[in-house]
Amino acid sequence: MPSARSYSLSELVETSGFDRRTIVYYIQSGLLPKVGRRGPHTRYPEECLTRLLFIKGVKSLQAEGQLLTATLAEIGRALTARDHAGIRDLLDRNLPVDELEGLFAQDAAPTPAVAAPAPAPPVPAPAAPLIAEAAPQGVRGPSGDRRSYGLADAGIRKRFGTEPPEAPVPATVDHEDAHPGLPGLPGLPGLNPDNFEQQAPATPGEATLDGDLGHLLRELEVRPILNARRSPPGAPEQWTEIPITGRVYLSIRGLSTEDAPIAEAVARVLKRALRTRASPTSA
């Protein structure tokens, strides 16, 4: 029985159309199977090429407007929902859009909610004031520093303004100063943004979807702003963009790494709303 076909990295680049850095990044992100220690003579299994062609095809359909934009994390979960033969079958049938929509809809389906953890006991205040931390840097992806928070390609992208800061501001931005008259939400220590995706309504049109979106947006609004003015003069202002469709993006100013899961939860609810309301309603 002949052995399974394997490929060099150069062959994967030539066949899939992705560059070397992107393929290596996909391996590190878990989108492609691990191959152990990589070197100039490393051979990659057939499944690597199959998954690369699937990702390439999905991105092409998204660029043409036939599919809603999905993050790499969502594509990865869709890949794990099918085995190698199942992905190969979709490719052989030219990636039927209706089946892909069903595959991504399964990824966005609600699951039983998980109880929020109990808040930790209060910690005594330190004797000396803490020094403000520097603004966190985004994770470097295949296209360089314009990526942020671990998602590449159609995932989260960082955008910078060009106007310098007008004047220094305090090291921390208090909620009441940033949002006068807007109260914070109760239960913040136990907030788990993933629970909002899990609490999706069982049928389209229920008010829970809008309620989850409003709650998440309000929570994102009252979070402290990552202010570029705390950096040296001339430091750029940070914006973070998350694609909802090929033309519509969720844009947040001063998003910190700690609050990125809330922004991603907002994006998931928006995509879920599009998938739910785009599907035909039953009589």
| Number of contiguous helices | 10
Topology, number of strands: 5
Q: CA-to-CA gap between the ends?
A: 54 Å
Mean pLDDT: 70
The biggest beta sheet reads: 3 strands, antiparallel
For the largest sheet, list the strands in their spatial order. 3-4-5
* Rg (C-alpha, Å): 22 Å
- Proportion of strand residues: 5-15%
What class, by secondary structure content?
A: mainly alpha
Tell me, briefly, the overall form. Answer: globular
Chain oligomer state? single chain
Query: What pattern of helices and strands is seen along the backbone?
Result: EHHEHHHHEHHHEEH
What are the segments in which pLDDT stays under 50 over at least 5 consecutive residues? 110-115, 129-165, 167-173, 185-191, 196-206
Structural key phrases:
283 residues, mainly alpha, Multidrug-efflux Transporter Regulator, Chain: A, Domain 2, 2 domains, three-stranded antiparallel sheet, two-stranded antiparallel ribbon, 10 helices, 38% helix
Task: Write a structural description.
- With 283 residues, the chain is mainly alpha-helical.
- The protein folds into two domains: 6-107, Multidrug-efflux Transporter Regulator, Chain: A, Domain 2, CATH 1.10.1660; 157-278, no CATH class.
- Helices cover 38% and strands 7% of the residues.
- It is built from ten helices and five strands; from the N terminus they run βααβααααβαααββα.
- The strands form two sheets. The protein has a three-stranded antiparallel sheet. The protein has a two-stranded antiparallel sheet with strand order 1-2.
- Strand 4 (238-243) and strand 5 form a beta hairpin.
- Helix 3 packs across helix 5 (84-92).
- The longest helix is centred in the last third of the chain and has 19 residues, at 260-278.
- The protein is globular.
- The N and C termini lie far apart (54 Å).
- The model is unreliable at 110-115, 129-165, 167-173, 185-191 and 196-206 (pLDDT under 50).
